[in-house]
Specification:
Blueprint lengths: L16 H22 L1 H9 L21 H6 L12 E7 L7 E6 H17 L7 E4 L8 H13 L2 E4 L5 H11 L3 E4 L1 H13 L11 E4 L13 H9 L3 E8 L4 E4 L7 E2 L5 E6 L12 E7 L10 E7 L1 E2 L11 E2 L4 E2 L4 E3 L2 E3 L1 H9 L4 E10 L5 E9 L7 H13 L4 E4 L2 H8 L10 E3 L5
Parallel strand pairs: 3-4, 3-5, 5-6, 6-7, 18-21, 19-20
Antiparallel strand pairs: 1-2, 7-8, 9-14, 10-11, 11-12, 12-15, 13-14, 16-17, 18-19
Length: about 450
């Protein structure tokens, strides 16, 4: 495969929508022929469905190709590999729908692509050579994101401090000693950092930190205003907040720019469709499931992969000057949709209320089927301290004011919730457990 990455100084994201579309259609042709030559899985798919690649010339033609789903990656994992195993230099895994993790192999070129992706994303969030980034994510445990962040910061020419996740004491000691200006972490962990600082007399408001880049959790509402978690952080700490969206499967990151109006796509790395309940693309601006086609991936490229995440495209030019379309904050995951007392909602709406309740130390949301076949939602919480009022009633009032309905609430010891949040093999905190029958 020939390199397809364009230099940032000649960035395709600033071209017109028509130019971006033509550019992506050229890369799509390269990707399709690469899959036809090197992927056992997609070659079999093309033959089975009689797909002629010469008829897939425009982005609109992608609808002629079946979707790839996570269960396909799990059932036929080896068939997705497009190069000899001796060319794989790094193995990563991501969660699978059938229980076991899904393995991804990355070539040297794939790691270079990851570095380029993160370089562009960090630059979008305002990072430049000379910035110092404290990385509060793991680089081990077969985790792609932490490695990608590290490679991207290096590629950008900024400095990185690899502290890893958790341990507020170590994080603040590092900030004091090395004076980073940027933190990268899961946003809810910032509240723990603030709490630790307040309990130990650390003047965090006058620390060196000027920017926080959030991963794995949302910071904004659909109108791009800060959600409750973002508001709570901003009220405590006057720093710039940037939200990102990424996944192992797509090997790309959608990062906000300084205007915080959605995550910018990098057109040379990924094609995004938004599909509705009929499995057809929805008009721009409407919500649907994010479907991605990777560009420039050598080891395990994917074609029309269903992410399960719900969002919308924003196609108007951003105030930063980029014409590349943006994704709105995620509404939730399609398979995690909850119907509670006639109201449709997603776990992030519940998380936002809980993250903004100061007496809640930790929590887990569980959903199961009731005897009547409807969704039963139980929120189990650990309290920082026993408040001088009925915490269950207060929380139900908070839920009703925010999402119009209230789940069941159960108070458990903090330690018990902690064990649920952080099982032995988990790389991310578990805050949602779906016990419904999967169809």
């Amino acid at each position: 495969m020939e390199p397809i990455l364009s230099p940032i100084e000649n960035d395709i994201e600033y071209r017109t929508p028509e130019e971006i579309k033509r550019f992506q259609e050229g890369l799509l042709q390269e990707a399709l022929h690469y899959l036809s030559e090197h992927s056992a899985y997609y070659r079999r798919m093309f033959e089975r469905y009689g797909i002629r690649l010469d008829r897939i010339r425009h982005l609109e033609d992608l609808v002629k190709i079946p979707f790839t789903e996570k269960k396909d990656l799990q059932l036929f994992n080896e068939e997705f590999l497009c190069c000899p195993r001796e060319r794989i230099v790094d193995y990563v895994t991501t969660s699978g729908t059938l229980g076991d993790p899904v393995t991804f192999g990355c070539t040297e070129r794939d790691l270079q692509r990851l570095a380029y992706n993160e370089k562009k994303s960090f630059a979008c969030a305002g990072l430049r050579p000379g910035n110092i980034v404290q990385l509060m994510t793991t680089l081990d445990k077969r985790f792609m994101a932490g490695l990608a962040y590290f490679l991207g910061i290096r590629e950008l020419g900024a400095s990185v401090i690899r502290v890893g996740n958790g341990i507020p004491e170590l994080q603040w000691d590092t900030i004091r000693r090395l004076q980073p200006d940027t933190i990268m972490c899961v946003p809810s962990f910032i509240l723990r950092l603030i709490q630790y600082a307040e309990e130990h007399g650390i003047d965090y408001r006058h620390s060196s930190i000027r920017r926080i880049i959030g991963i794995g959790e949302g910071l904004r509402e659909q109108d791009f205003s800060l959600n409750l978690l973002g508001q709570r952080i901003r009220e405590k700490w006057d720093v710039a907040l940037f939200a990102t969206y990424s996944s192992t499967e797509m090997g790309a990151t959608f990062s906000e720019c300084e205007y915080g109006c959605g995550g910018h796509i990098h057109p040379e790395l990924i094609i995004v469709e938004i599909i509705g309940e009929d499995n057809l693309p929805v008009p721009d601006g409407e919500y649907g499931e994010i479907v991605v086609t990777t560009l420039g991936v050598e080891g395990m490229p994917l074609l029309r992969f269903r992410t399960g995440d719900i969002a919308a495209k924003r196609t108007e030019q951003c105030r930063c000057g980029r014409w590349s379309y943006r994704l709105t904050p995620l509404v939730g995951r399609k398979h995690n949709m909850i119907k509670l007392k006639g109201t449709t909602l997603y776990p992030p709406a519940l998380n936002d209320v809980l993250d903004n309740t100061d007496y809640v130390e930790n929590y887990v949301v569980e959903v199961e089927e009731s005897d009547a076949g409807t969704d039963r939602v139980i929120v189990r919480i650990g309290l920082k301290q026993a408040p001088g009022f009925d915490a269950v009633k207060d929380l139900k009032d908070r839920f009703r004011s925010r999402i119009r309905v209230a789940p069941e609430i159960e108070i458990l010891p903090v330690e018990e919730i902690q064990r649920i949040n952080f099982p032995a093999k988990s790389r991310k905190p578990v805050k949602f457990i779906d016990k419904r029958k999967q169809v």
